[in-house]
TrEMBL record:
<feature type="transmembrane region" description="Helical">
    <location>
        <begin position="296"/>
        <end position="321"/>
    </location>
</feature>
<keyword id="KW-1133">Transmembrane helix</keyword>
<feature type="transmembrane region" description="Helical">
    <location>
        <begin position="182"/>
        <end position="202"/>
    </location>
</feature>
<feature type="transmembrane region" description="Helical">
    <location>
        <begin position="142"/>
        <end position="170"/>
    </location>
</feature>
<dbReference type="GO" id="GO:0005886">
    <property type="term" value="C:plasma membrane"/>
</dbReference>
<feature type="transmembrane region" description="Helical">
    <location>
        <begin position="273"/>
        <end position="290"/>
    </location>
</feature>
<dbReference type="Pfam" id="PF03706">
    <property type="entry name" value="LPG_synthase_TM"/>
</dbReference>
<feature type="transmembrane region" description="Helical">
    <location>
        <begin position="214"/>
        <end position="233"/>
    </location>
</feature>
<protein>
    <submittedName>
        <fullName>Uncharacterized protein (TIRG00374 family)</fullName>
    </submittedName>
</protein>
<feature type="transmembrane region" description="Helical">
    <location>
        <begin position="21"/>
        <end position="45"/>
    </location>
</feature>
<dbReference type="InterPro" id="IPR022791">
    <property type="entry name" value="L-PG_synthase/AglD"/>
</dbReference>
<feature type="transmembrane region" description="Helical">
    <location>
        <begin position="239"/>
        <end position="261"/>
    </location>
</feature>
<keyword id="KW-0472">Membrane</keyword>
<keyword id="KW-1003">Cell membrane</keyword>
<keyword id="KW-0812">Transmembrane</keyword>
<feature type="transmembrane region" description="Helical">
    <location>
        <begin position="51"/>
        <end position="72"/>
    </location>
</feature>
Length: 335
């Protein structure tokens, strides 16, 4: 008598991924609805006229500046990967970095930890050693953006309420995240306060200590430098976009608005800072005297050519990274 085997359960990651994408879709729908509402309030004709100022060359330039940002930060990821002892592999590291952009769709961007899974599959490096790479990469972004924001504010004739405290918060968070002893001490204090999950806190303390691999001053200086070049490229793109839309604004002011809105959006924990970044950007541009139709058009375009361009790249590279990591793991297991 033949026996029918029950179907294999679907991987747990698949439902989570669909939930994350559904959440992203819902947030994006709210953002789009808000932008449409604002455009309707100011006049569809005016907003549409502003968008029509841009041609293929301008859009290609904006995407090019974003690509500079991603390549600089990808090189930084490669630099950090070498510090934890991964074998040479620039193409592999860039594949991991770009593929992880698809997981920007997750709350707090925690889904980008998929890069750590790919590292383990392809190199065998354990989680405790590779996970700090993700933390120090985020910290390097915070330092670079805080430095750009502080410098832009110093050069700008306009001020942004709360910008300096936000820059200080970003720098402070980055300092804590890159100091092994300090972070390990905070983990210990948290364990003593909560008194639970000892195994989890032991692992977290071990990961904190692993940050020593990145404490070399030359490594940190190079990482921050790459981050500054990358994020400054997107600030310049935002400035050029505003000029093309007819705005009279300084480079320092445009850069400060872009970086501040990006950091403020990240504080919301929403995927890609959706909602918060757009609201901050539109409000600050309007305070600078730009007409609402220009503020809305500029915000919509820059978010498409930065956040959504990154997610699009991630969608193209993610399947390749997943397939390559599985193939490498199988090859290692069959040796």
């Amino acid at each position: 008598m033949s026996m029918t085997l029950p179907p294999s359960p679907a991987p747990a990651a698949a439902p989570r991924r669909w939930r994350d994408l559904a959440l992203l879709g819902g947030l994006m729908a709210l953002v789009v609805a808000g932008l449409i509402g604002l455009a309707a309030a100011t006049g569809w004709a005016e907003t549409r006229a502003q968008l029509l100022r841009l041609g293929p060359v301008q859009v290609a330039a904006l995407l090019g500046f974003s690509l500079v940002n991603y390549l600089m930060r990808g090189l930084r990821w490669h630099l950090f990967a070498r510090r934890i002892g991964l074998p040479p592999g620039l193409v592999r590291d860039m594949r991991h970095f770009l593929g992880g952009f698809l997981m920007s769709a997750t709350p707090g961007r925690v889904g980008e930890l998929v890069r750590i899974r790919w590292i383990r599959r392809e190199t065998g490096v354990p989680l405790d050693r590779s996970a700090p790479l993700f933390l120090v990469d985020r910290a390097a972004d915070l330092v670079a953006m805080a430095l750009i924001l502080a410098g832009a504010l110093a050069l700008s004739a306009s001020g942004i309420a709360g910008a300096l405290p936000l820059a200080g918060l970003a720098l402070g968070t980055a300092v804590v995240a890159t100091r092994p002893r300090l972070l390990a001490g905070l983990v210990t204090l948290a364990y003593r306060a909560l008194g639970c999950c000892p195994r989890l806190f032991v692992r977290a303390r071990g990961m904190a200590r692993a940050l020593r691999h990145f404490s070399h001053s030359g490594t940190l200086a190079a990482a921050v430098g790459l981050g500054v070049v990358g994020w400054m490229a997107e600030g310049v793109a935002f400035y050029m976009l505003l000029i093309w839309l007819g705005a009279d604004i300084a480079l320092s002011t445009a850069t400060a608005i872009f970086v501040f809105a990006t950091l403020a959006g990240g504080l919301t924990g929403a995927p890609g800072g959706l909602g918060g970044a757009e609201a901050a950007m539109i409000a600050l541009l309007t305070l600078e005297g730009l007409p609402p139709e220009t503020s809305i058009a500029a915000t919509a375009v820059i978010r498409v050519t930065t956040l959504w361009f990154a997610i699009g790249l991630g969608a193209m590279v993610f399947p390749i990274a997943e397939r390559m990591s599985k193939r490498t793991r199988h090859a290692m297991e069959n040796r």
